[in-house]
DNA sequence: AAATAAAGCAACCGCCCTGGC
DNA sequence: GGCCAGGGCGGTTGCTTTATT
């Protein structure tokens, strides 16, 4: 079906439209009149729009053609290009809006984006389009996939923890079934990434998601030389997130570079929800039970807004980071990096 | 190296709404 | 007011990739 109405003509040059329609008709051997007649007999505008519209992955040629169409004619009137490509107009629109549009960012989701998704999901539920609008250059489909493939599980676990504060202390480091894919933080030694900055709640509903070794040692530390925040009272933290339903969980925040093996996914999630999406310039709220500790590996560069606000000069990092970590955690770092790996062969 | 299963994500489905005719 | 195409949206499917045994 090729729809041409007056409003469209206002936007499209008559000559070009004429040329385009002729091109479509000649290229696809479509009888436009017959096509229109068929549509008149169909009630659904979806599947029956182009009964034989091709399905499946898009080829580079199709992408190129669709891009060219949008370049020439702008977004909309997908029925025109649908005929040429033997796709449904809906499929064309989806391909453009979700994949080909230059306004879409296809890179990995950042921690802040995850925060926003989690926060808004708790607030509004699965309103993916609304959530996507709160993010920059993300589509609802991206957000939805992000949630379904990653965040929902973490969120479910955290909710479970909230409900049963004295639940079992499952440790994902152990108990992997054959073939199960571990989180990226538990990759084999050869591909394991360098330790990453995490904030770990050592109290509150996520506390038991921190491995015992890390939790015990770090929560005992108060003012460690080289702490990112030498004055814990000045540390900005956002209000307790919705993950704490009663808003009452007293939590202490410890920030440190840890080997990934020490941090379970849920703990990492807990760290994410501690980070404010948009740090408020207003005075930091009081946290009576705050404990703070931060360490930096040599050469560390941070984009942490809270940190930069407090230390605009970006103090020199610690030199003996590994040694300090070993001292705090009480575990040999080489061993730590090998944690979670089983040598069965 | 093969088998396995989870993760990731593009694409589709179906329902609904809107605006033009 | 009814019909229709276009478009928005949330749910689901199925294929590919990847980590692990």
Description:
The protein has 14 helices and two strands, in the order H-H-H-H-H-H-H-H-H-E-H-E-H-H-H-H. The chain is mainly α. Among the domains are: 58-102, Orthogonal Bundle (Arc Repressor Mutant, subunit A), CATH 1.10.10; 106-162, Arc Repressor Mutant, subunit A, CATH 1.10.10.60. Helix 7 crosses helix 8 and helix 9 (140-163) packs across helix 11 (265-273). The model is unreliable at 1-51 and 165-345 (pLDDT under 50). The structure holds a DNA duplex (21 and 21 nucleotides). It is found in: Nucleus. It holds the Pfam family Myb_DNA-bind_6. Residues 153-166 have a biased composition (Basic residues).
Structural class: mainly alpha
**What share of the residues lie within helices?**
40-55%
* Cα radius of gyration in angstroms: 27 Å
Number of helices: 14
Q: How many β-strands, per DSSP? A: 2
Main sheet, how many strands, which sense, barrel? Answer: 2 strands, antiparallel
* CATH architecture title of one domain: Orthogonal Bundle
Distance between the termini: 62 Å
Shape estimate: elongated
* Topology-level CATH name of one domain: Arc Repressor Mutant, subunit A
Strand order of the largest sheet: 1-2
CATH C-level label of one domain: Mainly Alpha
Uncertain segments: 1-51, 165-345
The average pLDDT score comes to: 48
CATH superfamily grouping of one domain = Homeodomain-like
How would you describe the oligomerization state of the chains in this entry?
A: single chain
Summarize the helix and strand pattern as letters: HHHHHHHHHEHEHHHH
Strand content is under 5%
């Amino acid at each position: 079906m090729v729809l041409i109405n007056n409003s469209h003509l206002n936007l499209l040059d008559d000559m070009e439209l004429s040329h385009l329609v002729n091109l479509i008709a000649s290229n696809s051997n479509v009888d436009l009149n017959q096509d229109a007649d068929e549509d008149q007999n169909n009630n659904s505008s979806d599947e029956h729009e182009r009964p034989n519209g091709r399905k499946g992955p898009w080829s580079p040629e199709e992408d190129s053609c669709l891009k060219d169409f949008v370049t020439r004619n702008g977004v909309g009137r997908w029925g025109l290009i649908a005929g040429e490509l033997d796709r449904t107009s809906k499929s064309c629109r989806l391909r453009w809006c979700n994949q080909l549009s230059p306004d879409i960012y296809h890179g990995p989701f950042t921690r802040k984006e995850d925060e926003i998704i989690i926060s808004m999901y708790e607030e509004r539920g699965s309103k993916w389009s609304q959530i996507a609008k709160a993010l920059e250059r993300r589509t609802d489909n991206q957000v939805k996939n992000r949630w379904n493939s990653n965040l929902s599980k973490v969120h479910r676990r955290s909710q479970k923890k909230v409900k049963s504060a004295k639940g079992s202390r499952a440790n994902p480091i152990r108990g992997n079934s054959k073939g199960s894919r571990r989180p990226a933080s538990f990759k084999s030694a050869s591909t394991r990434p360098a330790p990453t900055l995490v904030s770990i709640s050592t109290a509150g509903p996520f506390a038991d998601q921190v491995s015992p070794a890390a939790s015990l040692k770090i929560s005992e530390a108060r003012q460690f030389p080289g702490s990112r925040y030498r004055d814990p009272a000045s540390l900005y933290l956002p209000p307790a997130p919705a993950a704490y339903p009663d808003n009452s969980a007293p939590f202490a925040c410890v920030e440190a570079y840890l080997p990934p093996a020490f941090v379970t996914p849920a703990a990492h999630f807990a760290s994410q929800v501690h980070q404010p999406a948009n740090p408020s310039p207003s005075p930091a709220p009081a946290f009576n039970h705050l404990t703070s500790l931060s360490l930096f590996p040599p050469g560390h560069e941070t984009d942490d807004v809270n940190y930069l606000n407090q230390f605009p000069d970006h103090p020199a990092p610690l030199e003996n980071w590994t040694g300090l970590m070993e001292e705090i955690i009480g575990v040999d770092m080489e061993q730590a990096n090998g944690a979670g790996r089983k040598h069965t062969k």
